[in-house]
Amino acid sequence: MTIRIDRVVTRGGDKGRTSLGNGARVEKDDLRIEALGTLDEANAVIGVLRAACTPPAQDTPQPQEVAFLRRIQSLLFDIGGIVCQPDKGPEAFAAGPAAMYVLEREIERLRAAQAPLTSFVLPGGTPAAAQAHLARTVIRRAERRMVSLHRAAPLDGTILACLNRLSDYFFVLGRHLNADGRDDISWLPDSFCD
């Protein structure tokens, strides 16, 4: 697919409306635009996470996680491309089952090396782990927005499942980036007033 963008400033959205992929004009707070905007925000947060994980030296090979994060960013664009075209129908995500398989395989690869959970985990630890937890929460919000949209205009159910799996991935990635859970910050119940 070739994409060409000749202009960034179009003035088409100056009055609070924007275009969908099929050319239809909608309000910028439309459920579909809200879902797309949250996907975009998730993608941006993942970009910050990638930057936090990328080795500083040009000749250093990128870790497997950085390459996988780029694939996730492309996956989010694929999902957005489907969502921005309301006429695509509820079975438009043909790559969905394969994406689910790849995500589940990667989750298991990371999880297998991690210490068992004995408590809830607080977001934090290394800067990259904290970014992974932030990505997890933004993906969860994108999932909630997609559920709202799905209720109003059915989407391919694999989109919802894929977002659910992505939040699982970012949880285990956060643990991976905290020395596979050894440097996780555990929740301590009732410790605020100690």
Automatic annotation (TrEMBL):
It catalyses: 2 cob(II)yrinate a,c diamide + reduced [electron-transfer flavoprotein] + 2 ATP = 2 adenosylcob(III)yrinate a,c-diamide + 2 triphosphate + oxidized [electron-transfer flavoprotein] + 3 H(+); 2 cob(II)alamin + reduced [electron-transfer flavoprotein] + 2 ATP = 2 adenosylcob(III)alamin + 2 triphosphate + oxidized [electron-transfer flavoprotein] + 3 H(+). The lineage of its organism: Bacteria, Pseudomonadati, Pseudomonadota, Alphaproteobacteria, Acetobacterales. It comes from the Bacteria. It comes from Novacetimonas pomaceti. This is Corrinoid adenosyltransferase. GO terms for molecular function: ATP binding; corrinoid adenosyltransferase activity. Belongs to the Cob(I)alamin adenosyltransferase family. Keywords: ATP-binding, Cobalamin biosynthesis, Nucleotide-binding, Transferase. InterPro entries: CblAdoTrfase-like, CblAdoTrfase-like_sf, PduO-typ.
